[in-house]
Design a protein that fits this description.
Elements lengths: L1 H13 L4 H13 L3 H14 L4 H13 L3 H14 L4 H13 L3 H14 L4 H13 L3 H14 L4 H13 L3 H14 L4 H14 L2 H14 L4 H13 L8 H14 L1
Length: about 260
């Protein structure tokens, strides 16, 4: 925490002409809420190094962390001018468009990135998320399928495909994806929650509780995990699984964590 910030400041002071320590310091300052100081460091670097890709990326990332999506997109675009046709940067621009609420431009940018690197599983997965938000289920499913084909065991894409299939009552397919994702990443609380919800909907309440409890073991401060377990304990049809007192405690923790 504070020790890391102090170390970053010391390193930057010892190497004032080096770019990397200054960038690391700016990130540390921003992490501790010193956004003005972080911005000053980066703009000072930019003045001395106007064509340095790392500085442009640091400015993009700083704005992304702060939730300034249009500014972040502008800096990623400037970085792209220094490193043309870089699919990772194009994907970043696509994500910023998506965060701004511009799905059409986001899809267009992802298409550009995938034309350069069609093996990018993350880009296919992100594209699928946008299609799903647009109500284009079939296109979303094809995108998730492609992501998983390129990267078997890709837990994010498996989770997205599982949620899609579960929402349409295709529980066996959804469970298969949850299981595959948990083989790759057994500590994934989101996959455990998703599988628990499917078990709950199927009436397999003991199985559901096991998954909700395991998710809680991995993410004890996650409000979604806390609220899901609390709701189950409060409303479970089986009296032997209900625990109203603990449900209230977990719900209170979830409210504080939000």
């Amino acid at each position: 925490g504070r020790l890391a910030l102090a170390y970053a400041r010391e390193s930057a002071n010892e190497m004032p002409s080096e770019i990397r320590p200054q960038i690391l310091l700016s990130l540390a300052e921003q992490r501790f809420g010193n956004s003005m100081r972080a911005e000053h460091i980066l703009y000072n670097l930019l003045g001395k190094n106007p064509d340095n890709l790392d500085v442009h990326l640091a400015l993009a990332r700083a704005n992304e962390i702060s939730g300034h999506w249009p500014a972040a997109r502008a800096w990623y675009s400037k970085a792209l001018s220094l490193k043309p046709a870089d699919p990772a940067l194009i994907s970043k621009i696509a994500l910023m468009y998506w965060l701004e609420g511009d799905a059409e431009n986001a899809i267009a940018e992802f298409d550009k990135a995938l034309a350069i690197n069609p093996q990018d599983a993350a880009a296919w997965n992100d594209k699928g998320i946008i299609f799903l938000a647009q109500g284009k289920g079939k296109q979303a499913l094809l995108a998730f399928d492609q992501a998983i084909t390129l990267k078997p065991g890709y837990d994010d894409a498996l989770l997205n495909r599982a949620n899609y299939n579960a929402s349409r009552g295709k529980y066996q397919k959804a469970l298969a994806d949850c299981d595959a994702g948990l083989v790759a990443n057994p500590n994934n609380a989101k996959l455990l929650l998703a599988r628990g919800q499917i078990y709950r909907d199927q009436g397999k309440l003991s199985h559901a509780l096991v998954d909700f409890e395991q998710a809680y073991e991995f993410e004890k401060r996650d409000p979604h995990v806390l609220n899901e377990l609390a709701w189950f304990l409060a409303t479970c049809p089986r009296k032997d699984l209900r625990d109203g007192h603990r449900a209230v405690i977990l719900a209170e923790r979830g409210a504080i964590s939000q």
